[in-house]
Amino acid sequence: MEKIKAAVQTFVEDINSEDSATIEVFGQTTNWLFSLILFLGVPFLTFVIFQFITLI
Question: Keyword annotations for this protein (predicted)?
């Protein structure tokens, strides 16, 4: 129980610090997911527009 308490306390201290490693990891992950969605979404949108044009 003490190990869990120490781990949670370390996590909370990291979150509250000015240069938090946890916040940095979440930020990098968010940027990576945004880039992935962007790079996969543009070709899909192009495909959908092309399919819509061929229906007309």
Answer: Membrane, Transmembrane, Transmembrane helix
Tell me how many domains the chain contains.
1
pTM for the model stands at: 0.65
Query: Residue 22 — pLDDT band, cuts 50, 70, 90?
Result: very high
Summarised one tens digit per residue, pLDDT across range 39-49 is 999 999 999 99
Residue 13 resides in a domain:
no
Asked whether residue 49 is domain-assigned, the answer is yes
Residue 55 domain boundaries:
25-56
